[in-house]
Design brief:
With 219 residues, this protein is of the alpha+beta class. It has helices at residues 2-24, 49-91, 102-106, 126-137, 146-151, 206-211; strands spanning 31-32, 37-38, 113-114, 123-124, 156-158, 168-173, 176-184, 188-193, 197-202, 212-217. Strand 8 and strand 9 (197-202) form a beta hairpin. It is rod-shaped, with a radius of gyration of 52 Å. It starts with a helix and ends with a strand. The model is unreliable at 20-27, 44-59 and 66-78 (pLDDT under 50).
């Protein structure tokens, strides 16, 4: 009898333990008795392999778009650089382009009146005329003074028998150079005379022949 009671007591204990254990652990993780349902699963716990792949693909796509943007900007930047380089080159002084022969170019001043200190196609003195023709045709700049042109170290002396078109011929006295012209083929020279303005005269002219002082070549 005693053994039977002991067995019954053990059985009751086992049943009670099982019931306690069954009530202690919910059948599904996240169950909350206070709300009578399951807690919402945090977002971080819902990310699966597919979600990870989607986010990685999105990140890769963003990187590719950034690279595409950089690639698109590159040509415009290169074009801007090319435009700046072209503008810089354009701003540099360019050598003048010759138009026909020197005589044809110089003839554009024929008929200009002699006015001391002037240097235009309508009014000029002898050195102003030479200065403008040489600057426009050869790109060589001179001071507006016949004596300074004669002493200019860039030029080389030329004998009377070796004159070529474009050489500068000088006139005056032993102690002063007061006139300059440009030698032309056929033993002529073009110059701005005080009486006739810009004209072409023969080198053999008696007046100018007596005043001839030499020639200089600058080309």
């Amino acid at each position: 009898m005693t053994s039977l009671k002991r067995l019954v007591a053990i059985g009751i204990t086992v049943i009670a333990t099982a019931m306690v254990l069954g009530c202690t652990f919910p059948t599904r993780t996240g169950y909350d008795r206070r709300i009578g349902g399951y807690k919402p699963i945090p977002r971080t716990e819902t990310i699966d392999d597919n979600t990870n792949f989607t986010e990685e693909a999105s990140a890769n796509n963003s990187t590719a778009q950034a690279a595409d943007s950089a690639t698109v900007k590159l040509p415009s930047q290169t074009s801007a650089g090319a435009v700046k380089a072209a503008a810089a080159n354009k701003s540099k002084p360019q050598p003048p382009k010759a138009r026909g022969s020197l005589e044809q170019y110089a003839r554009g001043w024929l008929g200009a009146k002699y006015v001391y200190g002037k240097a235009t196609r309508k009014q000029t003195d002898c050195s102003g005329f030479v200065m403008q023709v040489y600057k426009g045709y050869y790109g060589i700049a001179f001071k507006h003074n016949a004596h300074d042109m004669f002493k200019d170290s860039r030029g080389s002396s030329v004998s009377r028998g070796r004159l070529r078109e474009g050489d500068l011929v000088f006139f005056g006295s032993f102690w002063k150079i007061d006139h300059v012209g440009i030698y032309l083929s056929g033993d002529r020279f073009i110059h701005a005379s005080t009486s006739k303005g810009v004209v072409i005269s023969p080198m053999s002219d008696k007046y100018w022949g007596n005043k001839y002082q030499g020639a200089r070549r600058f080309k």
